[in-house]
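Deliverable D2.4 — example input (structure tokens):
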């Protein structure tokens, strides 16, 4: 096997929260927006098939049989507070966030170098993908409405927890299979060590984003960077 530095990277899969965008944008802007609007959203749109589907999935995940709409709302609010990476919650949050982006209530945060670096990597022929706990809809909204403009044309595909949990090896095996690359040619970027461990177990290369004020540890388990500019795929 070639040493990591000599292996050609053909695709980059990036996490969002803590990697391209601040944790604060997700926790202090997106989550509170969804929390505030979720009860009214479910009351107003609860009869739409896609909303009904995810409400049902949430109740199933919680093991609640014949839950009332109010019980499911309370469950979802609790899950937002716990930052639970539930596929059903994430799907519903994505639907709610759409309104906030479209009314200009917020634009998504990108670390300052991210847009230019993604453009440069794409210009060099690398294929770019996203893998986040946020739903694919939420990911597309986030990259369409950034402070640096619409970045969606740069991405070839998006993966969420419908592919599998981010801390499980099998999820990364599915991703490389879906994008049609050998794992050693794919670089996964994240701020979460357990996600990187899972990606490495699947054979991907890894890059650990430790954004200031976090500091690089003396002997990081994964190649570690404070910004995308330091990464040379
Ligand atoms: C797609 S934006 C919202 C991100 C989100 O809901 C979340 O839980 C963050 O997950 P990530 O996997 O990007 O760290
Ligand atoms: Mg993250």
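Example output (designed residues):
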């Amino acid at each position: 096997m070639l040493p990591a530095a000599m292996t050609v990277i053909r695709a980059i899969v990036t996490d969002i929260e803590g990697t391209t965008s601040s944790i604060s944008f997700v926790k202090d802007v997106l989550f509170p927006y969804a929390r505030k609007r979720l009860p009214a959203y479910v009351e107003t749109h609860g009869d739409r098939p896609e909303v009904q589907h995810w409400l049902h999935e949430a109740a199933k995940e919680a093991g609640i049989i014949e839950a009332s709409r109010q019980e499911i709302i309370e469950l979802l609010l609790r899950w937002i507070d716990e930052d639970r990476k539930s596929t059903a919650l994430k799907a519903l949050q994505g639907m709610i966030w759409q309104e906030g982006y479209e009314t200009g209530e917020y634009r998504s945060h990108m670390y300052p170098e991210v847009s230019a670096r993604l453009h440069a990597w794409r210009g060099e022929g690398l294929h770019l993908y996203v893998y986040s706990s946020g739903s694919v809809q939420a990911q597309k909204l986030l990259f369409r409405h950034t402070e640096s403009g619409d970045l969606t044309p740069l991405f070839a595909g998006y993966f969420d927890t419908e592919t599998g949990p981010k801390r499980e090896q099998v999820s990364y095996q599915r991703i490389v299979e879906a994008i049609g690359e050998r794992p050693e040619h794919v670089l996964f970027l994240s701020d979460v060590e357990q996600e990187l461990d899972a990606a490495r177990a699947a054979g991907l290369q890894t890059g650990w984003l430790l954004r200031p004020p976090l500091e690089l540890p003396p002997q990081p388990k994964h190649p570690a960077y404070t910004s995308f500019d330091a990464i040379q795929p």
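The pocket of magnesium ion (ligand 2) is lined by residues 15, 17-19, 190-192 (CB under 6 Å).
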